Amino acid sequence: MSSTQDIINRLKKRSEAEKQKKTKDNGDLKTESLGGNLPKSKDGLTIYPSFNKMNLNKELLKGIYSIGYEKPSLVQSKAIVPIISGKDIIIQQQSGTGKTATFTIAMLQVLYGLSTFNKKKSEGLQALVISPTRELAIQINGVIENLGTYLKVDSFCLTGLTNNKTASAKASTEKKIKLDLKALESADIVSGTPGKIVDCLKRNQISLDNLKMIILDEADELLDEHLGFKKQIYEIFSKINIKTQVLILSATMSTNILEVSKKIMNWDNHIKILTKKKEISLDVIKQYKIDLKENWKVNTLSDILNTVSYQQAVIFVNNVKKCDSLYKFLNKQKFSIVSIHSKLSQLERIEQMNKFRNGTYKILVTTDIWARGIDVQQINLVVNYDLPTIIENYIHRIGRSGRFGRLGNAINFVTDEDANQLSKIEKYYKIEIPDMPSGI
């Protein structure tokens, strides 16, 4: 039987089981009743103005407040409680609005929120978060660990089986893999990439038999027809049980992706929180362009980095060769800079990202490998040294600044050859990008 048919059969069984229910279980009734006198959004969802009103576990609340969250973002205020109540959900919101914390808080409440929770070894994996890149999977696992600090969360980052934190640097690869497999076996939550997850399924290193929740982050990449993940996602979904709750999240979501979602979600019990295309562009990010020739770019960038005020900056290029050459040039100019691209090893990419994230270096030059989902709060300047070849990546790139409503600047270098692509970007997002003024 094909993976697609397995998914269809699962959804049919789940839909039939839910239709036969005469009443919701006590947990759902308690959750739904919370929104009694609270305001409603235009799409009919209750808005919870504080985390305290969501009836979350006290230890989870402690984790939320300990990392600096004061009140929910709009998507968090609308989506966390419905997820806890068991609904499948599609969330399409622009970068920097708190999507990762949305599903993480809900997931931790579902898995650890009840004081009676006592994991048995036989229960196995409870939640699976799938991301298109190693960097994003690692970041999400970090968010899970931070928000779940006081819940004793048992999570594992599945991007390879030789990166165990507990193993010494001198430990053999074989020993590291054994330690990782032991940690993987005991994990309640796994954050990983599709290829590694499928590989572990084939080796019987993980089981999805008792999975409560599966989350697709940056779903437009995971479900795209041309990027190679879609077959793996279908294979994973063919292994999950009929009760598994499905969450789909992305900053952009095409009609095609919504159609694919119908094949992997329970369409009879789902909600959508979508941003209209005309609302996608971020008001807090000031966008500018500079018309120039290709051979002027390097010196123009140097001038910008010497004159524009910023806390941290990201410079996007379209290929590895240019990433390396630009890094070398700016490093010689004594700029505080690191670089990340696909040709670096996983360990090198993690090390570079940590140096940038903790503020040791102020500038990152990178390819689109870093365009999605990565959250560094201090970034307030993005330079598109090359315009993105994929229009949808424009919003992902500039979304690295302006996180959670903070002000940011995005500067686009535009050559004569780029004029048509810039026009397409402006038309797609219904914006007009002005020339960069002096003194920004």
Q: How is this structure best described in words?
A:
With 440 residues, this protein is of the alpha/beta class. Helix content is 39%, strand content 15%. The protein contains 16 helices and 13 strands. The protein has helices spanning 3-19, 26-32, 58-66, 74-84, 99-112, 134-147, 173-186, 194-202, 219-222, 230-237, 255-264, 297-307, 320-332, 346-357, 393-398, 419-429; strands at 88-92, 127-130, 155-158, 189-192, 213-217, 245-250, 270-274, 285-291, 312-316, 337-340, 363-366, 379-384, 408-414. The strands form 2 sheets. Strands 3-4-2-5-6-1-7 form a 7-stranded parallel beta sheet, with helices on both faces. A 6-stranded parallel beta sheet has the order 8-13-12-9-11-10, with helices on both faces. Strand 12 (379-384), helix 15 and strand 13 form a beta-alpha-beta unit. The N and C termini lie far apart (60 Å).
